[in-house]
Amino acid sequence: MSAPILCTGRYALKPYYLEKIGRRIYSIEELCYCITQNAFLIDTDSFDMSLVDWISDELSLRKLSDELRSMLVHNCSAAAFAGLILEYVGYSSKEEISSVEEILKNNADMDIYEKRMSRAEYLMKQGHLHQAFAEYGYLQKHMSEMDKNVKAKIEHNQGVMYAHLFMYDRAAELFHKAWEDGGDDESYLGYLAAKRMIMDEKEYVAFIGAHKEAHNLSLKLEQRMDEANDLYDASSANIKLRSLELYRSGAKMSEYYDEVERITTDMKEEYRGLVE
């Protein structure tokens, strides 16, 4: 359970509508949350005098609003504006504030589609797959004339996420589409890896034999699989499983079942976190 956050200022009677994010907010904490969760969509146009007036009039945070008003007059950056709000409220850690400021600085010259692409990649890397899928879906729906390389990048990343969800058939389809659109060997390697997961050894060997373009990359995939196995052997997950074997071999069945229950519960929670 997260620690409670002490609210700053009062709760607004009239909400403020954040147009770029499409959300109404009623408190300074909600504003901080929107900034940290949607930094990739924010730019200097997101912060104007109407927001400053709302912070003053509705939230009674006049000292903060005076500082923000001065920053707007002097044409400050979105990163500096957001950083001041987050620091004043104490909503985020120093590391989180620095991360938000870095995102805003890097995205200053991007258009809305570039920002959503960047946000989708960030969400994917953080394990927020449901939100990342939504961002990629938005881009595919609204970018009517999408560059083939951009399309391939989206399809490749969708393939990666489906693979994380153990949906290897769907992952294989998307990796193959990405390879057809972009011609990147990494997409074809992903395609082969997904095929390898859904086929038995005989089927996979026959598949490689029937696709000459797959031969050289299949050797590269096997090398990566060997490297991954070596890494797994030294991983904490493998150490846990080896400890289970010791419990069972030592006839410590009570400890064995307790540990099985704990490990499977942790795995279920991790999986739920991916798909929520």
Notes on the structure:
Helices cover 71% and strands 2% of the residues. It is mostly helical and 276 residues long. The chain folds into three domains: 16-106, no CATH class; 146-233; 238-275.
Task: Furnish the topology, listing elements before pairings.
Blueprint: E1 16-18, E2 23-25, H1 28-37, H2 49-57, H3 62-73, H4 78-89, H5 94-106, H6 112-125, H7 129-142, H8 148-164, H9 168-182, H10 185-198, H11 201-210, H12 215-233, H13 236-249, H14 253-275
Antiparallel strand pairs: 1-2
Helix pairs in contact: 1-4, 2-3, 3-4, 4-5, 6-7, 7-8, 8-9, 8-10, 9-10, 10-12, 13-14
Shape: elongated
Outline the low-pLDDT stretches.
1-5
Care to count the β-strands? Answer: 2
> How many separate helices?
14
Main sheet record: 2 strands, antiparallel
Helix content: over 70%
Strand order of the largest sheet: 1-2
What is the N-to-C order of secondary-structure elements (H for helix, E for strand)? EEHHHHHHHHHHHHHH
Portion in beta strands: under 5%
Spatial extent as radius of gyration: 25 Å
Domain module count: 3
Name the descriptors.
mainly alpha; 3 domains; 276 residues; elongated; 71% helix
Give a short overview:
By secondary structure, this protein is mainly α.
